[in-house]
Amino acid sequence: MDEQLRADAEVLWHYHHLRHEPRRTDVGIGLGSHDLGVAGYVAELYHAGRFPLVVFTGANAPTTVGMFPRGEAVHFGEHARALGVPATAIRLETRATNTGENITFTRDLLRDHDIREVTLVSRPYQQRRAYATCRKLWPEVDVVCAAKPQTLDEYLHTIADDDRVINMLVGDTQRITAYAERGFAIPQPLPATVRAALQRLIDAGFTKRLV
């Protein structure tokens, strides 16, 4: 990747980081994906006392079925238990195949709980879209978004698939506007610098995750 495209990827990376102030909430919700690090960070936050209850949500997408054949939520839950989160604190939502379903199915799963504040734990570049989706579909709760603190370089090294990460970063950025227009999420600001970086990456061929 040339220097300009790498800089553009950094622009998108920082755009998705909401930098919410950490606080204790009623539940931590780990959004399923290809990134098992989400489950690891949920475990870290649980042990830090950020929430007493954990929900992992996700069935499979075409990009994850090979890694997590029994479903994202199942594998994430197993990973969290291996990191010391007690099984009694974990709930699994195993049907969701997109972020909207992650939110709505988890909301339904927790209907009998008094949930007023939630922590959404996701891939670093999914934070803004997860927030916008939750505010639209579960407006009665306060939302804190969280992701493992790391640089783009560190994340690329962890995933070891630059093409996949950049394509998903581009796709998540495009969805900010596209999903708000379709009524799936609340609108989010999209600065001109972000629009320009997004377009250059699309023009460079990072189009595999566009809707």
Automatic annotation (TrEMBL):
<dbReference type="Pfam" id="PF02698">
    <property type="entry name" value="DUF218"/>
</dbReference>
<feature type="domain" description="DUF218">
    <location>
        <begin position="41"/>
        <end position="144"/>
    </location>
</feature>
<dbReference type="InterPro" id="IPR003848">
    <property type="entry name" value="DUF218"/>
</dbReference>
<protein>
    <submittedName>
        <fullName>YdcF family protein</fullName>
    </submittedName>
</protein>
<dbReference type="InterPro" id="IPR051599">
    <property type="entry name" value="Cell_Envelope_Assoc"/>
</dbReference>
<dbReference type="InterPro" id="IPR014729">
    <property type="entry name" value="Rossmann-like_a/b/a_fold"/>
</dbReference>
